[in-house]
């Protein structure tokens, strides 16, 4: 529904695919990457606190929710993808994606009856999907031009290699 079917990590209704992908998630969430999580969180927090004015309004109020989203996205990127990205743009797309899920789960009757509402949230889901596809393509390009692999291969690299080798 609205472009999310079998495309999600949280809401994935394809058990066959999930059984194949799950070991990669287990490894990513329990291996050396997990040990580096604290270090990445600290670095990311320092980075975004140094740019606190970016999440502060004219009255001096800090948008703590946006700050936390930026820190989490940056930390996740450093652990799992390692691709330069525009955190602000991706954070907005992630928020709109979850707004779509919230609308679907809380108001399913209205959601499918009002076409402009459905299209709005379908666009939000597709915008995030397209942004992720672009990041993955950038990662593929980086891997194809790299002379040697890093010692600690990130999550995305493992998935790309598995896909390239028919897993």
From TrEMBL:
Domain of life: Eukaryota
InterPro entries, per the entry: Cyt_P450, Cyt_P450_sf
Gene3D superfamilies, per database record: Cytochrome P450
GO MF terms held by the record: heme binding; iron ion binding; monooxygenase activity; oxidoreductase activity, acting on paired donors, with incorporation or reduction of molecular oxygen
Any matching Pfam family: p450
Family under the similarity heading: Belongs to the cytochrome P450 family.
Protein's recorded name: Cytochrome P450 aromatase
Protein species of origin: Engystomops pustulosus
